[in-house]
Amino acid sequence: MNAKNPDYRKALEHGFASAQFVQANGAELADCGPGWADASIEINSQHLQQNRFIHGGLQATLADHTAGAAATTLIDAKQFVLTMDMHIHFLRAAEGEYLVCRAKVLKPGAQFSVVESELYARKQGVDTLVSKASVTLAVLGHD
Asked: d(Cα 41, Cα 121) in Å, to the nearest integer?
């Protein structure tokens, strides 16, 4: 996959820094390349549900935002992406010190992209797959 914008990393860094909800939850871009992005959140008590597992809403947020980042690596600098549809499968209860997301573009396109996000709970240095999302994003142009 080829990047249309050579400064895509700056666009992703800006996207993480300027998304207040994502920032409030502590999400950070870890790495990226054409067609993929990795991000993580250090888990604290505010991220847990009533049974002390990592909340599904947090998992969905990280899956969605990281998918958008992956899709952004393949679009023009004057374009942006917006989620149209997302399905997430929670595979097991998530517990750990970090929530890690690895998103990769399955189908890039001029009008929409399809991205797969895999989420892992990292506990004592071991990553366990806890959920998987499929995200469809519209590719839109700036006015």
From this structure: 10
